[in-house]
Amino acid sequence: MTYPVNMSVTPVVSAHFDEATNTISYIVRDPSSTHCAIIDSVMDIDYAAGRITYDHADKLIEEITSQGLTLDWIIETHVHADHLSAAPYIQSKLGGKIGVGEKIMIVQETFGKVFNEGTEFQRDGSQFDALFKDGDTYMVGNMQGFAMFTPGHTPACMVHVMGDAAFAGDTLFMPDGGSARADFPGGDAGELYDSIQKVLSLPDEMRLFMCHDYGPNGRAIEWETTVAEQKADNIHVGGGKSREEFIKFRTERDAQLDMPKLIIPSLQVNMRAGEVPTDKDGNPMLKVPVNKL
């Protein structure tokens, strides 16, 4: 696959860190217009209380409205297991299309079974406005973006590239953070390694923006690096580490990890494009599958 990389365009990127989930959401603005996109929004949840709020999303909305921007896209890099998407809430305020990778259908089928969803739960990705295939292009104002299929963490992960900026989702962390786990249903460490190599084949000066950061060894939270820095310094894949080395490390490491605290609500909401499921009376309601994850 040859991707339409255009390093001559430098989008304006605004990062918004969510401390509760260590997620970074982005507003990406076309430098030649007032159009923008949002990458990986967050909906706040107090899981113990069963209470949903929108403080993080409201900050994105406020920035876009205060600058007089037009929102073209609300993009999910994948079905997140550690935070809930605020895509439909943002869309209700600002418009824009909600997009995700076309392999969402695999995720919906897999977790539709885990959560014992009935036939009313559509497993065809129809909850989203656009399903991206590998290499698909789209426009943010005058700026062309494109999607790279990067499975491994999940079967539906995609990296989105706009000009000289690539939004890595969970395919990569900062160099001292390495990579994301590959042990969720549908994940695969070998596929993740191959996907990372695809990302690292982008130009060395390509800016890479992470979806998460946890401040390894007590450092301050960071979210921006470059392809060159990742190739040289990433602790899991940098310096020419082999596929076999990565698979061995990733498999052993994943076996030691606890499940994300918000995986149960996140999967149910995110596979529905950010909509909270309801019971037969239309009340918002989440399920807790026992011994299924």
TrEMBL record:
Domain of life according to the entry: Bacteria
GO molecular function: hydrolase activity; metal ion binding; sulfur dioxygenase activity
Biological process (GO), any one: glutathione metabolic process
Swiss-Prot/TrEMBL keywords: Hydrolase, Metal-binding
Protein name: Glyoxylase-like metal-dependent hydrolase (Beta-lactamase superfamily II)
The keyword Lyase is assigned to this record: no
Organism listed in the record: Litoreibacter halocynthiae
PANTHER family from the UniProt entry: PERSULFIDE DIOXYGENASE ETHE1 (PTHR43084), PERSULFIDE DIOXYGENASE ETHE1, MITOCHONDRIAL (PTHR43084:SF1)
Keyword flag Metal-binding: yes
Record domain Metallo-beta-lactamase: where: 22-212
